[in-house]
Design a protein that fits this description.
about 300 residues, globular, alpha+beta, about 40% helix
């Protein structure tokens, strides 16, 4: 084992990282995929500016996230399916907001639900418990909205964002892409003003957009990465900081909350990919040369 690994090693599931991940997942009885995402979210807090991380730091972070994931899973035991079914056996449903909010706030790596969302799920046919679920919200990302209007002629209020997706280990292959296809049909039928669905894919967490591509979404643009933010060692979005502390400026937060530990990542992060899908008709591919890189 090398003394230090890079963020790229971990994102790319290099053999050294994969072995440590499998060992931690097995030891604590948690799904390796969920553990990987949570760990990748927190590794930038520890990484040097060159993106390198010590092996001991990585092992400790895997352990910390595995312990927390195990506790979180215990909190929602009765809300999720534990049985495996074929994709054809699953039922597509509009999912209850209270249940979806609890799952997203507990298990999703962002640990929050988006207010005002419509929630959908594939549920098992026996207990009607979710196997894969997602939320769809009015697009709030102004830079993405402006680019949609400027380049594609789509008004911002005609764009809806797939703001949360979570799939459990029992989900069959292609569950997310099938759910996305059913969501598109429902949005087309029930939201006549909607023209485009959008989502952000973060490669820093090991995501590459495979499920969106399988559902015939296309990458239309990318957006510059900003440093990850952390409070007392745990990731927090700017929205969460504003809700909790009234602002997201780290210098101001440190001054007004001397007991809190506010940090941001120092290593260079990879841009987020913005995937889009026309609600009606075919979604056009955008040549790489025409994909705009949006700045924060």
């Amino acid at each position: 084992m090398r003394a230090r690994l890079s963020l790229d090693d971990c994102r790319g599931h290099a053999p050294e990282f994969a072995a440590l991940l499998a060992a931690a997942a097995g030891r604590y009885g948690v799904p390796s995929r969920a553990l990987m995402v949570r760990t990748l979210l927190h590794l930038p807090r520890l990484a040097r500016p060159d993106g390198s991380i010590g092996e001991n730091q990585l092992v400790a972070e895997l352990r910390r996230n595995a312990e927390r994931l195990r506790r979180d899973q215990q909190q929602v035991q009765g809300l999720v399916s534990k049985n495996e079914f074929e994709l054809s056996a699953l039922r597509f449903v509009r999912f209850g907001n209270a249940e979806a909010d609890r799952i997203f706030s507990t298990l999703h790596y962002l640990r929050s639900a988006r207010a005002g969302s419509l929630n959908f799920a594939l549920v098992d046919p026996v207990h009607r418990l979710p196997v894969t679920l997602c939320s769809v919200s009015p697009l709030e990302w102004m830079r993405v909205g402006r680019q949609l209007e400027f380049q594609f002629g789509v008004p911002m209020d005609a764009a809806w964002d797939v703001s949360r997706v979570y799939s459990f280990d029992v989900a069959p292959v292609n569950a997310i892409s099938y759910l996305l296809a059913r969501v598109r049909q429902t949005v087309r039928r029930e939201l006549p003003s909607a023209q485009v669905l959008t989502t952000a894919v973060d490669p820093n967490l090991g995501f590459v957009g495979s499920s969106y591509r399988a559902a015939n979404w296309q990458q239309w643009m990318s957006i510059q990465a900003r440093p990850y933010l952390y409070v007392d060692g745990l990731y927090a979005t700017p929205r969460q900081l504003r809700t909790r502390f009234g602002g997201a400026n780290l210098a101001a937060l440190r001054a007004s909350n001397p007991r809190g530990r506010f940090e941001q990542s120092r290593a260079t992060l990879t841009d987020s990919l913005i995937f889009c899908c026309r609600v009606r008709g075919e979604t056009e591919a955008v040549p790489e040369a025409d994909r705009r890189r949006l700045r924060r």
